[in-house]
Amino acid sequence: MNKKTVLQSILALTLCAVIISCGQSSASSNADVSKSESKEDSLLNLVQYQTFQYFWEGAEPNSGMARERYHMDDIYPSHDKDIITSGGSGFGLMAIIVGIERGFITREQGVERFERITDFLENADTFHGVFPHWWDGKTGKAKAFSQKDDGGDLVESSFLAAGLLTVRQYLDKNVDREAKLADRMDAIWKNIEFDWHTRGENVLYWHWSPNYGWEMNFDVRGYNECLIMYVLAAASPDHSIDPAVYHEGWAMNGEIANDTVFYGLETELNHYETNDSPVGPLFWAHYSYLGLNPKGLKDQYADYWKLNQNHAMIHYKYAVDNPNEFEGYGPNLWGFTSSYSMRGYAGHRPDRDLGVISPTAALSSFPYTPEESMAMLKHLYTDLDTLVGEFGPYDAFSLQEDWHLPRYLAIDQGPIPVMIENYRSGLIWELFMSAPEIKVGLDKLGFTYE
């Protein structure tokens, strides 16, 4: 029996033990508390292992990168199975570190995968150093995300750059092989021309195309998932932005701080500049903060720990309130984000609710809502285990509509093992925040941090 089979057997037994223990009543003795904590740790190990496997066994084999989606039913209505994603691969780089540290793979295996990914990135299409949203995993040629989105995607590039920086910090500079790999990753990140994406204005633009130029015309302002892009742009050693790009563009000359109160909690920032929606989907509390540690992070506009904790708690309180009386919603079933749905890919949030639960929303919120997220995790793995597959919980489901598909998305699976690790050990936060460029970028934009 090989190592992988042994580990899977152990994890299967762990799941059985968790299911049994979660169904039993417990006394209030210290021994029972300790046993309960041990079972919870085992369950966290299991879900981290399964979601890590999306980026390990489920990766596109030539590039080592993350597939955009993985459908266990092998039905791909719109896109090729081997399309790979830049942003999701950034999450995957962080997940592989988790896999090494949790003993799912060896360090040797992890370094080999990092090298394969770096080999691919050094030869794949870029546009002013900026990655496309999608590539063909075999050729490295850009694949259009939409008609005019066939070039550089600065937001997805920032998620990938955050992953590269985290791995760079993780690699041992005293080991020649790892030191050389760190230098190669460093060169890729430093080549991203963040300043090109200002178009000479005080704001960052999301897309540029070699065929359509700036026709997408998406200037990124106001609060959403893109904070990390501005931090990295300020941190870039060779292609940095002026602080005015952040303050006038992203922060809209301070208008970003026009918050509201929803379910009794302050949102800290204005989540939408174009409408009155009080809060966004929960991936906004995850993508930028896989590496960027919100604990103690503040600027003149917000306390980012309060921002994210309140965001998650608003989603939780909404599900408990359940104003639409959707089946299953409650203290152990909550969380809304952009994911699959009965109507295709959709952006779920409290005021745009289709009755769809996206497990990544609650599970990736463990640092903010540990008790509420654990209740969701236990419920999934005990009462709703048919909604869990090889790579962890399926992307989305609706008890109301009796709907689910055995399908996964990289950008939803990736935050789960990483944010759970940040909850358990703070590892990925510690690595990313140790990068000297990040300190430079945060200082430049006026942030304070622990």
How would you describe what is shown here?
- The chain has 450 residues and is mainly α.
- Helix content is 44%, strand content 8%.
- It has helices at 3-22, 30-56, 86-101, 107-123, 154-170, 176-190, 227-235, 243-250, 304-321, 359-363, 370-382, 410-413, 415-424, 427-433, 436-445, and strands spanning 69-71, 83-85, 134-136, 142-143, 152-153, 207-208, 261-262, 265-266, 338-339, 346-347, 388-389, 392-393, 397-398, 403-404, 407-409.
- The longest helix has 27 residues, at 30-56.
- It is globular.
- The N and C termini lie far apart (46 Å).
Task: List segments where confidence is low: pLDDT < 50 over at least 5 consecutive residues.
Answer: 3-10, 16-27
Summarize the helix and strand pattern as letters: HHEEHHEEEHHEHHEEHEEHHEEEEEHHHH
Q: What is the tally of helical segments?
A: 15
Q: Quote the distance from N terminus to C terminus.
A: 46 Å
